[in-house]
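Hi P.,

Sorry for the delay on this. The queue was packed all week, but I finally got your sequence through. Input first:
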Amino acid sequence: METGLKGKTVLITGASRNMGRVAALAFAREGANLALCTSRKMKELGAVAEEARALGASVVADQCDVTDGAAVAAFVGKTRDKLGGVDVAINIAGFRNEAKFLEGSLEEWTRNIEVNLNGPFHVCRNVIPLMIERRWGRIINLSGVAPYLGGGAAKAMVKLGVVGFTRGLAREFAPHNITANCIGPGSIAREREAHEVEKSLNPIQPIRRKGRAEEVIALMLHLASEHAGFITGQCYLVNGGAYFS
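Then the structure:
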């Protein structure tokens, strides 16, 4: 099935590895052009960019801390100048805060908000005007299952905040033909992880393995495609059945 993504420009934060890398290459295979950024791992990002170019994509790849509004504005401006605009924005960059509430520091709590909530804020504030100009856009944010499973306070707070943020965007910008949805991955294997045994999983999860990034990205491709124009304000949980929404 054609996705209609050929020639579209897809901006992906946190694109240097794991889900970001898989997403970048998947969109490149669909014929999209890419704007890729990372806060630190430039060597890894450069490798992803080269792989995407080998697939035929035009690529802007740069360092960008999503907590820095000026840096995000500059990155989006560079994307507009070199690729003509932004059609799809995917906020993958994240900060993992697994600390127990009474043990975590204020600095960790604040960084958690800055990356996971302020980051998508800065990206969306800069890309939505470009989408309005084109009267077409797709915003995809990453949430999670922590709010639904009773995860740690810091993690659950920002993940649920992403859902509310996404739904607010969905309602406000639907008249401009812009959709906003989020995906809440469950336990997804990372590149550095070996095969996960059953005992390491949530005991109530019926699919007894970790998910693969490709399984999340398949949904992402659909939500970004021409076929998903009537889907907005939703949060899809890709979690092996650990929680039924």
